[in-house]
Amino acid sequence: MDFQLTPEQVVLRKEFVDFFEAEMKHAPEGWIGGEEEVIATDEGWAFHKEMARKLGERGWIALAWPKEYGGQERPIMDQFMFNEVRGYYRSPGIDVFGVSMLAPTLLAAGTEEQKKEHLPYIARGERAWCQGWSEPDAGSDLANLSTRAIKEGDEYVLNGQKTWTTGAHYADWCFAVVRTDTASKRSRGLSFLLIDMKSPGITIRPLPNMVGEHMFNEVYFDNVRVPVKNRIGPENQGWAVTRAAMNFERSSAEFFAGSKRLVEEVVEFCKETKRDGEPLSKNPVVRHKLAAMVTKATVGLTWARQVAWIQHKGGLAVAEASAAKVFGSESGQQLTYMGCQLLGTHAQLKRGSHWAPLHGSLETEYQRCVGLNFGGGTSEIQRNVIAWEGLKLPRG
Ligand SMILES: Cc1cc2nc3c(=O)[nH]c(=O)nc-3n(C[C@H](O)[C@H](O)[C@H](O)COP(=O)(O)OP(=O)(O)OC[C@H]3O[C@@H](n4cnc5c(N)ncnc54)[C@H](O)[C@@H]3O)c2cc1C
């Protein structure tokens, strides 16, 4: 693996840094980043859309895509570099579902018509997507899903319920996996559909998270009509498309870059804050904790780079991406807990309080970070993937 940036990449990286440094000055007050920040309020969503427009104008949303669909055909490592810098600055502007999951799925398995209909809009930051996979009885065991799509002429008629659908309340479109052969069981008889969220028969109900933020939703389909031409891949073979899309979701560069920024803020806090007349940063126990935090953030970024490097060389990095996801979820929680310990009792103060250190970000993160073990596939499921795909252990 080569860590060295080319002279052209050094210039490009500086362009990213200058852009985010300038633009993030216009973020809503107290902005701490994260998907929740984008979709929990109208103000966050408006800022996200504005950033998406600016990133789209520069061609940075689709750096590695083919030019004919709005991309720049740059190497995957340039895309990685962009993700890393954006993550560090906690910038919105990238629709993770459209850009990181659906677009690569369309590029791999979509028809020419589907690619032309959706990719340019995603590249310009104009179309928001949500992911309709989980159901009340189908999470880790996704193949147990029961939302049905029955074919009538050139349309499917959809009935059922999805849950935990992040951002459905702002999304223009949803990509969903549904059962098109009702006699089938498990992963057979499923299809991958693109659903216009303005279609009649869709009801969206909010599911507030622990912080009270409106991030998740329940989405109900009641005789919703979806054109057959909106199916990606062959009918009843949507499981293969879904599995491919799962793989595209898991590059953790932004996440680890965000962790690095958090650690830097905690280090600053420890330098500025005195206990018993001495800066916290002089205390050996505190120094050990800070060193552990820096190590975790640095190891995480190196993992993410390795995943990008393998993909740059043409590999899939299935097990490595799962390892990065597990390490990211668990180290993200550990960093938050350690950060709260170092900030002391004031870490419990909510955002908006004058006395809350680091704008109360850790109080919010403390509650948000519980979900890290679940979103994008649980840590147990990722460990299964590492065992099967990476270590070639037999399936139990
Ligand atoms: C922040 C966040 C965002 C999300 N966004 C979306 C979204 O936009 N769209 C969407 O469709 N879903 C979304 N989800 C749902 C997410 O995909 C599911 O929560 C996840 O797949 C787990 O499913 P579950 O919640 O039903 O838990 P379960 O599958 O019921 O798991 C419960 C526990 O059992 C363990 N377990 C289950 N099966 C096994 C096994 N075979 N081996 C070992 N342990 C096992 C799990 O690891 C877990 O600890 C989101 C979740 C979170 C937290």
Report on this structure.
- The structure is a single chain.
- With 396 residues, the protein is an alpha+beta fold.
- Helix 4 (76-88) packs parallel to helix 8, helix 5 packs antiparallel against helix 6 (112-123) and helix 8 (253-272) packs antiparallel against helix 9 (284-312).
- The strands form three sheets. The protein has a four-stranded mixed β-sheet with strand order 1-4-5-8. Strands 2-3-7-6 form a four-stranded antiparallel β-sheet.
- The mean pLDDT is 94.
- It is built from twelve helices and ten strands.
- The chain is 46% helix and 15% strand.
- The chain folds into three domains: 7-94, no CATH class; 130-237, Butyryl-CoA Dehydrogenase, subunit A, domain 2; 250-390, Butyryl-CoA Dehydrogenase, subunit A, domain 3 (Up-down Bundle), CATH 1.20.140.10.
- The protein binds flavin-adenine dinucleotide.
- Flavin-adenine dinucleotide (FAD) binds next to strand 1 and helix 12.
- The site of flavin-adenine dinucleotide has 18 residues, from strand 1 and helix 12.
